[in-house]
Amino acid sequence: MKSILIGVGQAGGKVVNALSEFDARNGFGSVVGSLAVNSARSDLRSLPLETVLIGGAEVNGHGVGGDNELGTKVMRDDAEAVLSAIDDRTTARAEAMFVVAGLGGGTGSGGAPYLVKELQRVYDIPVYGLGVLPGRDEGALYQLNAGRSLKTLTREADATLLVDNDAWRSAGESLDSGYEAINERIARRVGLLLAAGEAVDGVGESVVDSSEVINTLRGGVATLGYASAEAAPDAGGNVNVVTSTARRAVRSGLCLPDTTSAERGLLVVAGRHKAVPRKGVEKARSWLETELDTMEIRGGDFPLENDWLASLVLLGGVVNSDRLNGFLERARQAAEMGGHADAPDDETLVDDRIDGLL
Questions:
Q1: What is the pLDDT of residues 81-113, one digit of tens each?
Q2: In the chain, how many H helices and how many E strands?
Q3: Which superfamily does 3-196+325-336 belong to?
Q4: Distance, first Cα to last Cα, the chain
Q5: pLDDT digits (tens, 9 = 90+) for 170-194
Q6: Which of 124, 155, 245, 300 could form a disulfide with 208 if both were Cys (CB 3.0 to 4.6 A apart)?
């Protein structure tokens, strides 16, 4: 799926950079434009991307200090410059836009929802959010920021793909090394999803195309799972490889863990064309239908010349996630305490205790 990526804030810029590098390194060509937007000049200097500094008149390049209302304001004030930069990178080949942000900080959590709203007004291709949730240990202000941002983003975007920091950060990792590893994991998963259907290495039996990704990302919250294993030389020896990696992708590899049900699903099996078993793909799809209690499961393969097989599972319209519910409860409690104290650990994103940003 040919996509334009716009990173907002420090985390958003770093994720877009990792995604762009992954796409270029593998020769997929699915990223057709990328841009980083921030109110902190120092965060933009280190990125090998085209950049736009916002809020110069308001914060003089020093960032918004975690204030996501100010993040919304500086994006609104400089929206014309951001839209102009995006327009310069938009081609007729683009099939979707992804606005990427960490939802706990100030510029990303405040600016991303407003930018999504503006992009929806200007363009007629889907505009998605890719939001990174703060970890439990990142403080009440980050929980409150993310709760407000998520409530607004899910309303404005065509769908919001969520990544939970706690899901992928290993025990004992420093913050910097942990975030770098998370960015690489996001890049591999989302990069493969965007590249699905590009048919880089031959033609598969039933190649996933962009319309299937778009139909799965049809509103609400989405999550993406991934698992891989070494492949046997021929398809007959890989039936169990496909079914087992599909199960692991859902049960231990989701970027929003503990998701127990969703309205739609998409299974993509990546690997050498002759090594992908149709029987394995069909068995994995049937298992997904039962696991998620939905008949709307799409599936297909993505031909890649590798010695491994990978199952990529996209779940759209997430109905129930213990991890998301736990995060929302922390955000609600942070809202009740004004975001000044650490909040402890069912309802939906429509909650009067969490104010939207727009």
A1: 999 999 988 888 999 999 999 999 999 999 999
A2: 13, 10
A3: Tubulin/FtsZ, GTPase domain (3.40.50.1440)
A4: 30
A5: 655 655 667 788 899 999 999 999 9
A6: 300
